[in-house]
Amino acid sequence: MIIFDIFFHNSKYIKLLNAKNLKNIGNISPNNFLFDKNLNKEKKHFVQLGIFAKPHEVDKIKAEVNLLGLNPNIENYLLNRKLTKRITLGPYLNYEIFESILRKLEDNKIKYIILNE
Q1: Measured torsion, CA atoms of residues 101, 106, 110, 113, in degrees rounded to the nearest 10
Q2: Cα–Cα nearest to 50, from 86, 74, 75, 80
Q3: Considering Cα of 37, then 19, then 8, then 24, what sign does the dihedral take?
Q4: d(CA 94, CA 39)
Q5: Which of 14, 48, 75, 107 could form a disulfide with 113, with the two C-beta atoms 3.0–4.6 Å apart?
Q6: What is the pTM of this model?
Q7: pLDDT tens for residues 19-66?
Q8: Of 102, 106, 78, 107, residue with least CA distance to 116
């Protein structure tokens, strides 16, 4: 705090700030882009199509989604100490594309859950 007082109450430094057009440096908002941690982090949207224990269920959903021109992610998932497969779509950074994917799924009556990261 002492350094702050010395710096901002010393006329030499005030003139330097004025010369550099930094007069309003004390008026920086906490919402300023320099302080907003989430500005550069875009929200990722995923669509979960299900978690299945039986391979034929996974193949059925995978085939339906492939017919729509979408490429599902299939990963091993441990649920209640049982190995299952989780099917997701994404990540989508562009919200318009994400909405179009949801419309495709709804038009074809495919159930889903939205996941945000």
Answers
A1: 70
A2: 86
A3: negative
A4: 15
A5: 48
A6: 0.62
A7: 544 444 444 444 444 444 444 457 899 999 999 999 999 999 999 999
A8: 102
